[in-house]
Amino acid sequence: MNQQGILYGGDEIGALVFDPGHQSLRLGFAQEDSPKSEIPSVVAVSPGSPNGITEPEVKPDNNITSNKYYIDTTFLNVPRSNCEIKTYMKDGMIDDWDLFEKVLDYAYKKVIMSESELHPVLFSEASWNTRQNREKLTELMFEKYNVPAFFLVKNAVLAAFANGRATALVVDSGAKHTSVVPVHEGYVLTQAVVKSPLGGDYLSMQCRQHLETQGIDLTMGYAISGKDVVKERDPPRYTKRTLPENLTTSWQNYMLRQQLQDYQAAVVQVLESPFDERVASQIPAVHYEFPTGYHQDFGSERFKLAESLFDHTMLGAGQLASTCVSNCDADIRLALYGSVVVTGGNSLLPGFAERLNRDLSHRAPSNTRIKMIVANGTVERRFGAWIGGSILASIGTFQQMWISQQEYEEGGKTQVERKCP
Known about the structure:
By secondary structure, the chain is of the alpha+beta class. The protein contains 16 helices and 21 strands. It has a six-stranded mixed beta sheet with strand order 3-2-1-9-10-21, sandwiched between helices. Strands 11, 12, 13, 14, 19 and 20 form a six-stranded mixed beta sheet that branches. It has a three-stranded antiparallel beta sheet with strand order 5-4-6. The protein is flat. The model is unreliable at 1-11 and 50-55 (pLDDT under 50).
């Protein structure tokens, strides 16, 4: 059977790596050092008629409803009437399978531009993914996409691999939550996983409240046709663009969240020790301009915003990490403290890793040596799990671990529980 030849004979045909998250789906070819594409984890859905549909949208199923689906940044960011933003993710897991399939169809057609039958596929999953979900994804990939081989790995294990570790304490702070997952010899210790709902979206909400109480106009770029240059802290002067009627709240909130994420990335910073107005006010302020043309310096408040990720008694990142370690067997705690891998979009906030290090040191037993492993590059930190998948899928010894089409035909979707720990 030639299929085995394609699969295991070295690197004739590249395996694909998919890493779904609340912010985006990262995808690309194994052996590459960064994903080929990052597709937002939301789809804009508008009620439309089956006729006259242009390319970017996924064509509706004529016999069911006639919704139009807009996928990927270019098409999502266009203001359209009655377009609702929907996500297929819930609690770190794929939840709306119909929407997810639309995104996969788009990914194969527009990003990979190749037949799904040709590429083995490695997917990352949350450490708390359910058996039912794992089986459903396995079934989808073999039945609908006819992939030659498939594998599912916990994203914390992949983030550890990306940093050259088989045992690590993986602190992943993403859009929806911050989770701490202990990985021992390549396996997740599920009973010790802890997570909190304090992530990037929570931080965006804090930023929004802060800016609105300051009375800063958060009108978005898409609503502005022109603006004047104004002095610092002067009210903005801009002309509004005529927009389509009935822009949905979900779409406007989605666009606002992107604006807030930009503000977060440019302004927000973590203090290395708990927030202290005196210390914070001595650090240079950061200048930021909003789409309206309004601009000002942001001083100590930019540190106060990030504090919410750390100062919470139960859910602060340092507290989560020490709780996680104490849930593990005593004999591996030192190894975990000696290998703390920091990953996820929020970890890009300046000072994040240093603060985590300080908070952990205060909570760990006195003679513990803590080693933080923080990738230098933005790409490595944002796409840790994807990069780990890219490395894993291209290692020679991994090749016999795939679930092959043949094994799937013989054992069905339950193979995933047997072969993918």
